[in-house]
Design goal:
The complex is a heterodimer of chains A (about 250) and B (about 375).
Chain A lengths: L1 H7 L8 H21 L6 H29 L5 H18 L7 H10 L9 H14 L4 H15 L2 E4 L7 E11 L22 E6 L9 E8 L5 E8 L11
Antiparallel strand pairs in A: 1-2, 2-3, 2-5, 4-5
Helix pairs in contact in A: 4-7, 5-7, 6-7
Chain B lengths: L1 H22 L9 H30 L4 H37 L11 E2 L2 E8 L9 E4 L4 H26 L2 E3 L2 E3 L5 E8 L2 E8 L3 E4 L7 E4 L2 E6 L3 H14 L5 H14 L3 E11 L4 E17 L9 H5 L2 E34 L4 E24 L1
Parallel strand pairs in B: 2-14
Antiparallel strand pairs in B: 1-2, 2-3, 4-5, 6-7, 7-10, 8-9, 11-13, 12-13, 13-14
Classes of the chains: A alpha+beta (about 250), B alpha+beta (about 375).
C-alpha cells in the first residue's frame, strides 16, 4: 500500500503506472468487444462485398416474391379486362408511349378464346395460351399480342412525373415465358428479354424517361398440359419504384 | 534506541533500492521503467489482437454478414415456389382428369360391356343359345363411387406426371443441391356446388437441407385445395341418368331425346355415331332334340360309273338323327353419345401429341340387339 501510494504520488515526473495499466485495460476491453460482436475488421473489401452481395440477393428475393404474386393473380372478368385494354389503346393513341401493344388484335383473340382467361389465374392463363400457341402456327402472333397486352394492363405500374400532363409515367416490368424451359429453370442473360429467341412470349414496356438499371431476375416454373414445364422469368429494377396504381 | 534507529535507516535504504529497482533507474537516475512497460504492453496487446484477428479473419471469410438469414429467406422462397408449382399442377391435373374421365365414360380400362372407337359402352345386349337367343342386357353404368374413383385415379396420374417432370426436367437448387418434390398424396374430392374441388395432403415432406456441415434443415408437407368451375361428379350423374333414358332408341328418337336433354340442362348432347350391323353368325338354339332324321352313311351297292352312288344307285343307308334348331338372325345396333359441358380447358391429345383447348365432354356408347327374323332348321 505504501509502495502504491509512493508510485501515485511521485513528485519527480515519472510516468504513472496506473495510467499505463488503464490504457492497457481499455484496449483489451475493446478487443474483447470486437471478438464478442464478431466484427470483421481485417478485410474491409470482403465485408463490403458481403453486404452488397447480400443486398443483391435480397433484391432477387423481392423479385421472386413479385413474380409469385403475379402468377397467383386472378384474371379479371371480361368487362374489366376489356375496359383496361380500351384504356391502354386510348393512352397509346394519345401518347404513343406503349409501342409494341396491338390492342385490337389482342381483343379479337380474347373474344375468340374466352376460356384462356375466364376463371383462371395468371399462371393458368399462360398454360392456356400454350395450348393455342402450339396447336396452330397461324395464331402464334395473336397469342404473343394477347399475352403482351393482357400482361401490360394487369401489371402496369406508374411513377410520378411532373413533366407529364397527368403527372404519370407508365411502365411494365419485363416478363418472358419460355415454353421449352431451355435454361432448365435458370435465369437467362441479362440482355433485353424480348431479344432472346428462346422466349416464346415476352413483354417489356419501359416508357421513355424511366431509367433502366441492373435487373434482378426471378424464375418460376409453370406446368403445361402436356406435362412439360414453362419457365417464366421476371425482372425487377429497384430504380423503377412505383407509388401509383395503374389504370 | 540506537538499534531502532539503525533498523529504520536500513528499512529506508531497502525501500529506496526497491523503488530504484521498480523504476529501473540507473545510478544517474535515468528512467527505463516507462519505456519498458510501454514496449512490453504494446507487444502483449499486439499478440492478443493478432490472435483475435486471425480467428476473426477465418470467420469473416467463411460467414458473411447476414448469410444465414438470407439463406433462410432463400429457402422459404424456394419452398414457396415449389409449393406454387404443386398448386398449379393440381389445378391443371383437375382439368386433365375432367377431360380423361369424361372422354372414357368414367372407365380407365375397357368395361365388361366393351368399347368401340374409344367410346366405352355403358350397356350392351348379347344373345346366346344357352338362353334360347333371348337378348340379355349387361348394364355398365358407372355409379357415383365409380365416377369419383375414375376421376381421382386420373387426377393422381396427371399430378404424378407433373411432379416427375418437375423433378426430372426442372427443379430448383439450394446451396447447389437439387431439391425434389415428394409425391405421396392423400386425395379427397370435396362437395362444392358447381365446382370440382380436390384436397391433397402429402404424406412425405418437402425437405430442403443445407450442406452436411450445416445443421439447418427446412421441412414442409405440401398440400393443396384446388378446384375447377365444373362439377364433374354431378354432371357425370346427369349423363348416366340421361343414358338410361336413351335405352334402345332408333336414330330419330335418339336425336329427339338428345335435343330435349340439351334444352333441359347445361350439357349439350349429341349423337357421335349410330350404326346397325347384322350379327354373324346368327344365334341358334335347339327347339327339339333329335327332331330331324334322314338317311346317312349310304354305301353304294352297284357301280354307277361317274354317277353319285347315293342317289342313283341306291344302297344301304342308316337313319341319322339331328336336333331341330331355331336360328335367330339379329342386328347389333351401336349408338355413341357425347354430352359436352361447354367448359374448355387445355388438353393433351395423346393421338395427335398436341395440346389443344377442348371442352370437357362425357362420351359413352350403348349397344343393343334388334331381332330381324328366325327360322327352324335341322
Amino acid at each position: 500500500m505504501k509502495l502504491f501510494l509512493l508510485l501515485r504520488t511521485d513528485k519527480r515526473g515519472f510516468f504513472p503506472l496506473e495510467l499505463v495499466f488503464s490504457a492497457l485495460g481499455y484496449i483489451v476491453a475493446v478487443a474483447i468487444l470486437i471478438l464478442i460482436l464478431n466484427i470483421p475488421l481485417l478485410d474491409k473489401g470482403k465485408a463490403e462485398s458481403s453486404i452488397s452481395g447480400k443486398a443483391e440477393t435480397a433484391a432477387g428475393l423481392r423479385a421472386e416474391g413479385q413474380l409469385s404474386s403475379y402468377l397467383q393473380t386472378q384474371m379479371p372478368a371480361k368487362s374489366e379486362l376489356f375496359a383496361k385494354l380500351d384504356w391502354l389503346k386510348e393512352r397509346h393513341d394519345k401518347e404513343s408511349v406503349f409501342a409494341g401493344f396491338d390492342v385490337p388484335k389482342a381483343k379479337a383473340f380474347l373474344e375468340k378464346y374466352p376460356d384462356v382467361y375466364s376463371g383462371e389465374d395468371y399462371s393458368g392463363f399462360i398454360s392456356a395460351l400454350h395450348a393455342i400457341y402450339t396447336a396452330s402456327s397461324n395464331e402464334k402472333d395473336d397469342v404473343k399480342e394477347a399475352f403482351k397486352a393482357v400482361t401490360g394492363v394487369m401489371f402496369l405500374r406508374a411513377v410520378g412525373d411532373g413533366r407529364k400532363a397527368d403527372g404519370h409515367l407508365f411502365y411494365v416490368l419485363p416478363l418472358g415465358v419460355d415454353f421449352e424451359n431451355s435454361d432448365k429453370g435458370k435465369p437467362s442473360a441479362k440482355t433485353s428479354i424480348c431479344t432472346q429467341p428462346h422466349y416464346d412470349l415476352c413483354v417489356e414496356a419501359g416508357t421513355y424517361g424511366v431509367a433502366i438499371g441492373v435487373p434482378f431476375q426471378a424464375v418460376q416454373l409453370v406446368p403445361l398440359a402436356d406435362s412439360s414445364i414453362a419457365k417464366v422469368e421476371f425482372r425487377y429494377y429497384t430504380e423503377w419504384d412505383s407509388w401509383l396504381p395503374g389504370p | 534506541m540506537g538499534f531502532v534507529a539503525a533498523g529504520a535507516v536500513r528499512k529506508f535504504v531497502e525501500m529506496k533500492m526497491m523503488l530504484k529497482l521498480l523504476r529501473l533507474q540507473n545510478k544517474k537516475g535515468v528512467d527505463y521503467y516507462t519505456p519498458f512497460v510501454a514496449i512490453v504492453g504494446f507487444l502483449v496487446l499486439a499478440a492478443v489482437l493478432t490472435a483475435v484477428m486471425l480467428k476473426q479473419y477465418g470467420l469473416a471469410s467463411e460467414f458473411n454478414l447476414g448469410r444465414e438469414q438470407l439463406r433462410l429467406f432463400h429457402t422459404y422462397s424456394t419452398a414457396d415456389k415449389m409449393l406454387s408449382f404443386v398448386d398449379d399442377s393440381a389445378k391443371l391435373s383437375l382439368e386433365q382428369a375432367a377431360h380423361s374421365s369424361g372422354s372414357k365414360g368414367f372407365y380407365n380400362s375397357i368395361p365388361a360391356c366393351g368399347s368401340k372407337d374409344s367410346f366405352n359402352y355403358w350397356s350392351k345386349d348379347s344373345a346366346s343359345s344357352a338362353n334360347d337367343c333371348v337378348p340379355e342386357t349387361t348394364p355398365c353404368y358407372p355409379d357415383e363411387a365409380a365416377v369419383k374413383s375414375a376421376f381421382l385415379e386420373n387426377f393422381e396420374k396427371s399430378l404424378s406426371g407433373f411432379v416427375k417432370s418437375f423433378n426430372d426436367k426442372g427443379g430448383f437448387e439450394v446451396d447447389k443441391k437439387k431439391v425434389e418434390l415428394p409425391f405421396d398424396y392423400k386425395l379427397e374430392l370435396q362437395p362444392v356446388p358447381d365446382r370440382t374441388e380436390v384436397v391433397g395432403i402429402s404424406g412425405k415432406p418437402l425437405v430442403i437441407a443445407s450442406a452436411a456441415t450445416n445443421p439447418f434443415k427446412y421441412e414442409v408437407k405440401p398440400s393443396f385445395r384446388e378446384s375447377i368451375p365444373i362439377d364433374v361428379v354431378a354432371q357425370g350423374a346427369e349423363v348416366v341418368k340421361g343414358a338410361k333414358q336413351l335405352a334402345k332408341p332408333n336414330k330419330k328418337d335418339a336425336e329427339k331425346k338428345l335435343s330435349d336433354f340439351s334444352k333441359a340442362g347445361a350439357l349439350k348432347w349429341s349423337l357421335a355415331g349410330y350404326s346397325t350391323q347384322g350379327h354373324s353368325p346368327p344365334c341358334a338354339f335347339v327347339v327339339e332334340p333329335k327332331g330331324c332324321n334322314y338317311k346317312c352313311n349310304c354305301q353304294p351297292t352297284t357301280d354307277c360309273g361317274d354317277s353319285d352312288p347315293k342317289t342313283t344307285c341306291g344302297g344301304e343307308c342308316e337313319t341319322c338323327y339331328y336336333d331341330k334348331v331355331e336360328i335367330v338372325t339379329y342386328n347389333d345396333i351401336t349408338a355413341l353419345f357425347s354430352a359436352d359441358s361447354g367448359k374448355k380447358f387445355p388438353y393433351y391429345d395423346p393421338a395427335s401429341k398436341k395440346v389443344v383447348m377442348k371442352s370437357v365432354a362425357y362420351d359413352f356408347g350403348l349397344s343393343w340387339i334388334e331381332v330381324t327374323g328366325s327360322s327352324t332348321n335341322c
